[in-house]
Each structure stands twice: as structure tokens, then as C-alpha cells.
Amino acid sequence: MAAADEGTRGQEAGGDARAEIERLRRLIRHHEYLYYVLDAPEISDEEFDQLMERLKALEAAHPELVAPDSPTRRVGGARSGEFPPVRHPQPLLSLDDVFSREELLAFGRRVEAALGEPVEYVVEPKIDGLSVAVTYEDGRLAVAATRGDGLVGEEVTPNVRTVRSVPLVLREGAPRRLTVRGEVYMPREAFERLNEEREAAGLPLFANPRNAAAGSLRQLDPAVTAGRTLAALFYQILDMEGEPPGTQAELLEQLRRWGFRTPPAWRLARSIEEAADLCEAGAALRATLPFQIDGMVVKVNRRDQQERLGATSKVPRWAAAWKFPAEEALTVVRAIEVSVGRTGALTPVAVLDPVRLAGTTVTHASLHNEDYVREKDVRVGDHVWVRKAGEIIPEVVRVEVALRSGEEEPFRMPDRCPACGAAVVRLPGEAATRCTNRASCPAQLREALLHWASRPGMDIDGLGPAVVDQLLARGLVHDASDLYALGVPALAALERMGQKSAENLVRAIDASR
Ligand code: IVH
What we know:
The longest helix is centred in the N-terminal third of the chain and has 36 residues, at 2-37. α1 packs antiparallel against α2, α3 packs across α9 and α12 packs across α13. Strands 12, 13, 14, 15, 16, 17 and 18 form a seven-stranded antiparallel beta sheet that branches. By secondary structure, the protein is of the alpha+beta class. β13 (345-357) and β14 (360-366) form a beta hairpin. It has 15 helices and 18 strands. 35% of the residues lie in helices and 22% in strands. It has helices at 2-37, 45-61, 101-115, 157-161, 188-200, 209-217, 222-226, 248-258, 272-288, 303-309, 370-376, 442-453, 465-473, 488-492, 499-511, and strands at residues 85-87, 97-98, 121-127, 130-137, 140-146, 152-154, 177-185, 231-240, 267-269, 293-300, 319-323, 328-340, 345-357, 360-366, 383-387, 395-399, 424-425, 433-435. Residues 93-95, 124, 126-127, 131, 183, 235-236, 263, 297, 316, 319, 321 line the site of 2-(butylsulfanyl)adenosine (IVH).
């Protein structure tokens, strides 16, 4: 009797737990939706964390009730070991670029001539991330893939599951089968934090938030992806059960109701002129967003018109990307230093007052070579405009001559190598001035070692600037071949290097033999 009682009570407790777990999951999903999609949270982060903790505790006490789409299960399962191919339900097309108002108006004229009727457009920000296609089956995230070549992508489902703004479960009313396309990106702040951490750890920096997002998504261990702050926005339906929305505007509203984040600040334009105005206003929008956008996308609003216009094998004829000019910032040159590269080339580098530019704080800008400095007439003390051309080290575009005080100092290329003191030469017909000490210039050696260890080189993980500098300072390495004689004890004795990292590094070096 007593045992039977226990059993019933146990079942009741199980039933209660089941009900509470389901209630908590619904509540957490609701608050995730308010927070990530509507951007209108109703509870504090602490309250949200408490709901999550309560759910985790209940699931830990009732492992039989754990479900793969529980909000606690974003990082689940083992590392995949590979990214299997996934064929997209329709090609993930690219976009034709326009760089001026005239070019956009010409695009509009072509579209309207082909259709022979007035056209409305939707204008959306162009998010600087990477495209993903995400498939939901019965409202549950089933497969996520990168763009790949547009036809076949790589499956990255466990990694995409860790992106908090990608819904694991869709809201009421979503079609039973749905594949959407969107953009995964890394918010500016997260990108800066990540690069600061990597710099401190001597790891190579990501050139821009897009590369950081791509690198974070293509991780064999989803726990690494989970440790990176990524976000996603969705803007296209690739496949669905039932009739897709009749316009891009309805599509964006529908996606949002189903639980997806959509591009912020999208607008409907009654004409191509109005679309061009919105694109021009995009430059101001860009400054207010917490993530990088590299332009605006103009799309024909009506789906029947989109279908009549069709697509080439690469791009739709119903959309165009308005690209922003590269961002520029004004700052002051405090010094011009000369760095020595792997091949001995001397590169003048401007040391700048820190200035924010395209998502990062810039402190150095390349001046390329002697001729470049002369041609731009960059002097120490000058106000200069700097720009990023996809590189980590930005470049000086031009001097703001009107701001000169007269105290500025012209630059002279040194006649001795700043690293080893050897003579430098500039051969006729060459832009580069080079250090003549090929055999033992420490700067050349350092760069040569870093090049050897780099991804396009021998791809030796863990052999970054911090380690190379110490190896050189301690005289442990005089050329790349010395790397292969390094043992664990010597490496473990370096700063910020434990036994485990030393073992990993020896293994990585061995693997490159
Ligand atoms: S529409 C057929 N909309 O930009 C639809 N693309 O340069 C084609 N992108 O490969 C894409 N934000 O990865 C579209 N709001 C947006 C976008 C967007 C970013 C990316 C996308 C595309 C690339 C083309």
C-alpha cells in the first residue's frame, strides 16, 4: 500500500514537473521572442536567467523530460567532425552592385521598362555577414547550412543552434515546412572584444566582423561557436509549404510573426527615386546600428513582378545592392614608424590618435612605401583621412592640408634598418626599400617565422606573435628549422604557456613536418 502510494506520488511529481517544464519552455521562448525579435523585453536579464536556471534544474532532475528543442539545449551533442554537403531548395543568389544614385535609377528604369507598369520597392539594410539557409520541419529547426557555392552549402546545424536569435521552435501559424535565408553576423562590440582577447593570447586577428562570423560558424566544436556572440536576421523564403506572401513587405512581417528577426529599419518606397533617397539616408542609419552594414538592398516589392523579371544564374533581376563608399575617419599622425617585413621590405606606418572606423578602433595606418608618403605628402603632426580596404591595417587616403599649423615634419626613409642597423637599398625600378641583412635581421626572421606558421603557410596553431617573440628573445630559434627541435619543457617555460598548450604546440609543429 505504502509502495503504491509512493508510486502514485512519484507519477504526480513527474506529471507536475512535466507541466512546469513545458510552461517554463513556453515562457522562455516568449521572452526570447520579445527580446531578440521585437527588441522589447518585458523582464530583466536577471529574471530571464532565473527562468533558465529553474528550467535547467528541473531538466537535470528529470533527464527523461529533456527535449532537443528546449531553450536550454542550444549547445548539445558532440562535435560533428565535418560539415556535410546540403543542397539548397533554390539557389542562394548574389546581388548586382550599384555605386551611385544614377546607377540605381538606371536599374529602376530597366525594371520598369521590362514590366511596363509602376513598381514599388522595399529598401533594407545590407548586413555585412554571411548567408545561411535554415530549414524548419514541423516548426522545429532541422538543418542549417552555409551558402557554399550557392547551390550546395555546408551543414552547420549544431553551430547555428547556438545563435540565440535563431529560433529553435517557430511560433503558432508558421508553415509546417519552411526554409528561410538570412545573414549571420557578429555585432561590432563582440567583434572588438574577440579581437582584443585574441591579441592578448597572441592569436591572429580577424580582419573584420564578417570574417569573424564566418570563422566562428565554421567550427568543428559547437561549444566554440557558442562562446562567440553571433546574431542573425532573415529576409527571404527559399521554400515553404503553402503560398508564400505576395510581397517582400508582407514576407518580412510574416517572418517576424513566425519568430524570426528581420532587417531593422526596412521601408517601402513608392518609386525608384524614393528608394534612392532611402539608400542615401542609409549612411546615417549605418552609424546608429550595433552591427556592420555595407550598403542597402533595393528589392521589387511584388512577388509576381519579381517572378516576371526572373534571375540570371548569379543574381536576381529584381534586386540591387547599393554599396556604401568605404568609411573614412579624420585623425592625427603622431609618428611615422618603419616596420621590416619578411622579405626585408621597409614599410612606413603612421601611428595615429585612436579613431573609430568601420567597427574597430584604428591606431596605425599603412603608408606602403617611400613614394606613397611623398606623393600624399604625409607629415608627422598632419591631420589625415584614413580608410579600411578590407585589411586589418588601414591606409592613409589624404592629408587635410587646411589643418596644417606649419609645425609638421616631413618623413625621411632611414638609411639603416631600424631592426638590425644594416644598410638598406632601394633597387632601381622597385618601390620597396630593403634591409640588406637577409641572413640575420631579427625583424625579417620574426616575420618569416610568423609567415611559416600562418594558415596559408604551415598552419601551425598556437604559434602567434607572442610565442615567436619569446622564442627569438630567448635565442631558442634562429630559423624555421629550429622550430622542429623544440621540446615541451622549453615551450612550457614561456610566459602565458602552460604544460597543456606546450604539448599542443609541439603536436601542431610535428603535424606540419
Ligand atoms: S537579398 C535573391 N537582402 O548580400 C536575394 N541579401 O552582396 C539575394 N545580404 O549574398 C539576397 N543583407 O549574403 C539580401 N537584406 C539583404 C541582405 C543581403 C545582406 C547579403 C547576402 C548576399 C549578399 C550580396
